Amino acid sequence: MLFGLIDNPVFMEGAVSFADIESVVGEWAPWALQESYDNSGLLLGERDTKVTGILVSFDIREAVVEEAVERGCNLVVSHHPLVFKGLKNLRGDDPVSRTVMLALRNRVGVLAAHTNADSTNGGVSYLLGARLGLKSMRALVPKDGQILKLAAYVPPEAVEGVLAALHAAGAGCIGAYSHCSFSTQGEGRFYAPPESAPYAGAKGQLNRVGEVRIETVCPSYRLASVLEALVEAHPYEEPAYDVYQLINRDSRVGLGCIGMLDEALDEKGFLARVAESLGTPWLRYSNPTGHLVRRVAVCGGSGADMIGQAMAQGADAYVTADVKYHDFQQPVGRMLLVDAGHRESELMVVEALRKLIQERFTTFAVWESSQDASPVHYYRR
């Protein structure tokens, strides 16, 4: 086993595996939310390998792997994937292949939470918005096809228990509201074969029983766990349910977010807040509009392709990164466009991942990397 540490004392009953870490990160930022071009998840390592320690970083390069080894960590959790495009060889003549080889030699696993962390409710852009003081945030570009409707047919005395199980599994959220459902009384009909064990009615005959149709919504990426909860909580031998694809959009899930400042700022004051909040030595921005800034759109990382959506939703300012020269011409006179830097606009995800793992597991150390340096430097006259 390449990553098996058979003689390591962490191979005890109840020890935490790479799969456990992948599961916990996926609960916060479901892996199904990653973009089709992305490569998030466990990239190096066997899922049953037991964790000795975790190092969290923004990027992952050789220095980060070396730090992990020095600290006794056998798993690095990063935001940007180490392997993003296809690797055709492992010769060690480029930074990615050298880092992969170093990790393999030292039995260090690698897990990345990239665009799934960008799109999840409370993810990268929400963290950026919170850092800037935004309230009442929602996704700037909600993801399509994420909302399903679940209808289940339940005996009246089991309704509350079934609903509680569905909600605990992640169903019933509409915007900021939770535990949402609708119920209607009705009559169910079924024939129970002689070999069955019906909860209500009799074997070998057509039965008519009172039932309640309960309807709720759930994200597509939670459907498996919601159906598992339904079957577990439902008293019927064969629970009846329907699942419908909806065209509704989940306003909490998607790329970027938009929200409101408590008080409007002039553009100079807003730029000062961005620079101070992100600790960045520079900002690039479009021609000032002369308007006050209160409604603010943000997208951590590369978000120039959403400038139009930010303007369409009435943003006074849009904070993102990787903005090209001609992009700055799009919002002239309508919106202040701010490029705060790719790393600077996303770096808070490192602390979020560290806290997420640290709060769930207490049997090993979780560190933020001290060797995860920015590849970008700034010259000041």
Question: Which key phrases capture this entry?
Answer:
single chain; 381 residues; alpha/beta; Udp-n-acetylmuramoylalanyl-d-glutamate--2,6- Diaminopimelate Ligase, Chain: A, domain 1; Alpha-Beta Plaits; five-stranded mixed beta sheet; 15 strands; DUF34/NIF3; GTP cyclohydrolase 1 type 2 homolog; N-reg_PII/ATP_PRibTrfase_C
Report on the structure:
The chain has helices at 18-28, 62-71, 95-105, 115-119, 124-132, 159-168, 223-233, 267-278, 307-312, 342-346, 348-360, and strands at residues 41-44, 54-57, 75-78, 109-112, 135-142, 147-154, 182-192, 205-219, 240-245, 254-265, 284-285, 293-302, 317-321, 336-339, 366-368. β2, α2 (62-71) and β3 form a beta-alpha-beta unit. It has 381 residues and is α/β, with parallel strands linked by helices. Helix content is 27%, strand content 26%. The chain has 3 domains: 18-114 and 348-368, NIF3 (NGG1p interacting factor 3)-like (Udp-n-acetylmuramoylalanyl-d-glutamate--2,6- Diaminopimelate Ligase, Chain: A, domain 1, 3-Layer(aba) Sandwich); 121-142 and 254-340, Udp-n-acetylmuramoylalanyl-d-glutamate--2,6- Diaminopimelate Ligase, Chain: A, domain 1 (3-Layer(aba) Sandwich); 147-245, Alpha-Beta Plaits (2-Layer Sandwich), CATH 3.30.70. Mean pLDDT is 93; it is low at 1-13.
